[in-house]
Amino acid sequence: MSNGDIFVGEVIGTAILILFGAGVVAAVVLNYSKAKDAGWVVIAFGWGFGVLAGAYTAAPLSGGHLNPAVTVGIAIDTGDWDKVHIYIAGQMVGAFLGAVLCWLVYYAQFQANADEEIAQPTLGIFSTGPAIRNPVANLITEIIATIGLVLPILAFGLTKGLGESGTAILIVSFLVVGIGLSLGGPTGYAINPARDLGPRIAHAILPIPNKGTSDWSYSWIPVVGPLIGGVLAGLIFKAAF
């Protein structure tokens, strides 16, 4: 894979991931959306299908990492760090663009939300936040949840048939749904630094009415936690397998 293919693949794949993921949250949260109040299960499956669509689209070009934690975990396992920066750059750009696309899709709902007497908060559409603010607990949650993502992904690579048939991506998408349902309650399960930081930046820049103040004091947790989780998953896999 060339550097250009990797970058383009990760941009496109991550943009699709965020379009679906942020899109399903917007659908459930925003007033005047037909999916208003559809609930957590819908959100978990929306993110899972985002992984499915994004990874399958990016796979021929870049392998479809879509997540710096996955990229780092793979690099630790293989010892190949040469293209890590290209993967992460593509993921960050794609995450930002996906957030912009979500904003465009729900533009009318964002505008209508501003006219409500009690406007719905919008930061949570684009980035994660804790149910109970406890930095240590929140960080641990993100680390464990990301290990729960990256370690199985690395293990799936040991079964050649999964990779050759493309079934591995389907299984990973259901893995993301499972993480959302089982481990997503405490922090909203970022498990992906690009997924959180790129849209968080987009939310700060985009002209979204009544968006309030971005919570940058928390923003390091969904970046650092998943990166630590990716590193630990890579080390565990290398030691055990």
UniProtKB/TrEMBL annotation:
Q: What is this protein called?
A: Glycerol uptake facilitator protein
Task: Alphabetically list the UniProt keywords.
Answer: Membrane, Transmembrane, Transmembrane helix, Transport
PROSITE patterns with a match to the protein in the record: MIP (PS00221)
SUPFAM superfamilies the UniProt entry points to: Aquaporin-like (SSF81338)
Family stated for the protein in its record = Belongs to the MIP/aquaporin (TC 1.A.8) family.
Give the primary localization class. Answer: membrane
Q: What's one Pfam family here?
A: MIP
The family database entries (PANTHER family) matched by this protein are listed as: AQUAPORIN OR AQUAGLYCEROPORIN RELATED, AQUAPORIN-9
Compartments it resides in:
Membrane
Membrane topology listed for this record: Multi-pass membrane protein
Query: Which domain of life does the protein's organism represent?
Result: Bacteria
Q: What is the lineage of its organism?
A: Bacteria, Bacillati, Actinomycetota, Actinomycetes, Kitasatosporales
